[in-house]
Fold this sequence. Notes:
Strand content: 5-15%
Number of strands: 9
Largest sheet: 3 strands, antiparallel
Number of helices: 15
Strand order of the largest sheet: 1-9-6
Order of helices and strands: HEHHHHHHHHHHHEEEEHHHEEEE
Radius of gyration: 23 Å
Helix content: 40-55%
Cofactor: heme
Keywords: Heme, Iron, Metal-binding, Monooxygenase, Oxidoreductase
Oligomer: single chain
Bound molecules: protoporphyrin IX containing FE
Pathway: Secondary metabolite biosynthesis
Distance between the termini: 22 Å
Amino acid sequence: MWAAEIAETGTGFKKIDALSWLSRATLDIIGQAGFNYYFNNLEGGQSELNDAFNTVFTPDQNFNLFRILRQTLPIVRSISNKRMQQMDAAQGVMRRIGLQLIADKKAAILSEKAQQGGGVEKRDLEGRDLLTLLLKANMATDIPESQRLSDEDVLAQVPTFLLAGHETTSTGTTWCLYALTQAPEVQRKLREELLSVSTDTPTMDELMALPYLDMVVKEVLRLHAPVPSTVRIATKEEVIPVSEPFTDRFGEVQDKIRVAKGDYIFIPILAINRDKAIWGEDSMEFRPERWEKESEAASSIPGVWGHLMTFIGGPRACIGYRFSVVEMKALIFALVRAFEFELAVPVEDLIKKTGIVQRPLVRTEMDKGTQMPLIVKAYHHQ
Length: 382
Ligand code: HEM
């Protein structure tokens, strides 16, 4: 599509908002891989759902605070502002489309069974996509009733996976293209490695075997972690050990942190990923080569992937991180082989706005919302 748009200009390049395109691409990908459903978002279909996602993901610091207050203070719960109404409407759209996905899938399974005769059993639900697996736990009559997921249970998973598996990866891939525009030598070296692969459609194993691509993706997900922070709530009183004493807000030196049951614990993912004590003095620089030798200080980070907090760790870590890493690699593989990238605005005009994910905005074009304008040139392999 980009190639066609560039060809149309007759100049060999075009200014393109990478964020919106990648967002459409990752929605199509999670739709297909997760639900065997074709949103055709790249072709302009299902814009209603994309609008709903944009509402939920538009960075709005006040909203985060409002949401927390809304959960904790009953009086605030009764206040509904315009933003809350938009969120409710967006969630309504996601619910309706989720129900449609489930209904379509169930109807397809039942019509197939009606032709063959007999009830639906586990072995009848062979699809590899997530929705089929969930419906297996919902419809199969040979699974005890008490162990089956209800329609509501299945429905609850649909927006979770669509949301969690869509904007995160597109944001990560967008920041990757940005980082490459700021490091032309890395972009060149990466392209050289990618062009050494003899096929346009590598297998997952072929993608995962490319060392420089792996370093670039790790470095992007370190420096530009799409989810910059999260929160946990202590389920019991606990004492957290610290590596060195610190002075608390009352001026007292402490050698541990006491946590009470119910306390909110802020997890500063991005700050840990960029900590100089862990990553060195150049921790704010995009330098994929740092991954040639893994940081010893980072080896104690309990992240589920790459000694990074990007997908956090523990039992509630990101369930989709393997999928996401392969997806990012596949997107970067295709894009960097075919195109060269430059930032279309002065770098100082690009700002990061933090919502659930960190997305780029252009200071001089705030009315356009989040975007990553790039000059994309067709790359002609010699
Ligand atoms: C670069 C891409 C991604 C990043 C940075 C990311 C990051 C995260 C983080 C930080 C969490 C923990 C949130 C919390 O509990 O506070 C999380 C949870 C989750 N992620 Fe991802 N994610 C990515 C891609 C994906 C993809 C592609 C999927 C689905 C295929 C996915 C599915 C989920 C789900 C379902 C959870 C909730 C897990 C649970 O609560 O048990 N994520 N992700």
